[in-house]
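The following record pairs a protein chain with its ligand, uridine-5'-diphosphate-glucose.
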Amino acid sequence: MANATTSLPLFEKIPRKNTIQRGFDIIIFFLLLLLLVYRLYFLNHYGFTWILAFLCESWFTFNWVLVISTKWTLVDYNTYPDRLLQRIPEVELPSVDMFVTTTDPVLEPPIITVITVLSLLAFDYPSHKLACYVSDDGCSPLTYYSLVEVSKAPFRYFSGDDSTTSSGSDTSSNFQQEWKRMKDEYEQLSVKIENAIQNQNIVPCDLTIFSKMDSKNHPTILNKRPNHSHHYKAVAMNVLTRVSGLMTNASYMLNVDCDMYANNPKIVLHSMCLLLGSNSEKEIVFVQFSQAFYEGLKDDPYGNQLVVMRELDIFIEDNIASVNEEILKRVGSSKELMKSVAHALKGKTNSPDHLSNSIDTAYQVAGCGYEHGTSWGRQLGWLYGSTAEDILTGPRIHSKGWKSAFPRPNPQAFLGCAPSGGPAVMTQQKRWATGLLEVLLSKDCPILATLFAKLHWRQCLTYLWIFTWGLRSIPELCYAFLPTYCIITNSHFLPKAQEQAFYTAIVIFVIYHLYTLSEFLRAGLSVRAWWNNQRMARITTMTAWLFGFLSVILKLLRISETVFEVTKKD
Ligand SMILES: O=c1ccn([C@@H]2O[C@H](COP(=O)(O)OP(=O)(O)O[C@H]3O[C@H](CO)[C@@H](O)[C@H](O)[C@H]3O)[C@@H](O)[C@H]2O)c(=O)[nH]1
Ligand SMILES: [Mn+2]
């Protein structure tokens, strides 16, 4: 019996049924081709408008090919944590270092980071196997104070063997009491933090280190000085990777933004099923979860809740696995860190007594000069050079032949905060479009990775679909400009009503919109939400993505650098 359970797979990959959708994908593709043939046929009859329409429609058709390829073979993952726990004794489960980044106490109120940290510590996973590291690029005493308070208060709830922490369905009075006590304690904690924010000058803990601190130039509490080029979140993640390498040195890392609290307590177990359950070592090395949001506005007026097109985002990454002996020499001058890396390569973690001994070395490896002359950000850790550093690092791993998984757990793995107002939505979209185009134009371009490395061509098409966001603004803008231009010049760019091609255009229009509408309805969204998303998609493409495109042009011309503008969370 025991043998039967240990031989069962830890996860299963299940192809999603999408025959009807594939049918519509192909119909739309052929209609688009038909329209292009018609354009070519009459290219000599009409002038500028015709050529422009032909170029735009060629781009839309190319984009549609990328869409078809991306959606053609979708898979779901079923994971079985119970089998994992039967197969691996609790003491042998791998440890996980969890990283949270924050940077601005005004745009990212400390209580948000606190909630995220608390949710990570409450994972349904042996508590001594979890370690949480927080980086604050803003050097905020309030964030520091809030986290000190967290470390004091509710830790006893996360002892792991306390049944009250995991039995969500237990309605016994004991559980109810514990639950209420925990809730009260959380209330007290948040009131304390709220008070500290309101009376900024009397933060009740030892903050001498923060006095007269400049958030852009400070000693190593963290890593940020104006004379070193700043790589935003990527550099913060690399600092945390090194520091954790010295302290706990877990073989797995989990990264979330400060506003992404864990919504599914078993998510580490689910991820372990994928990471440990694959047959060959090259199978799955990181797991990503889509970005989902809490308290989104009704009907998604800004079209940014990404319910239909899920963004690829948070990832648990077994980065250590890809470190080889050659790279060992390039982790920097710290002997202790080299030892830790070698240790990790053998699959070992650091013992808890290592923690206090490693503080001094941790300061050294967190210093902003430490990375000078090393491979950090180029071959090691989170890569530098894009304002979407996560989407730069992912393809690099894929191009080495490693695989990843993108499961859709229920309940959702993590919930974040979608910007709730116009300008913030646009700023975020502009940063993404900028970052994606930076990757497309870098040496990590998916086309090069397919030709010269091990990126699969279907992966390449999907990356191209996403990385060309910024470029898409140009044909969309031109196409939107055509009707106005034609009215002014008394010309036309669409087929006339008596022509057969007229019906092709109409049918494309109708089928495409019914197709997107059905996607929204199947995802349980309203017609209104669909309409809002269509509208915002046009606005975003022609404004935010255009500015993203322009900022990359300015970077190429060496006129200005691209910047990471942080999204406001509330
Ligand atoms: O100098 C910086 C700037 C940002 N951050 C952190 O980076 C994270 C993401 O920033 P946010 O403003 O929330 O951007 P989003 O657009 O919501 O983030 C998405 O897009 C980013 C890339 O543009 C990725 O880094 C994120 O993981 C992804 O969730 C937050 O935790 C920030 O605190 C830093 O640590 N240092
Ligand atoms: Mn965010």
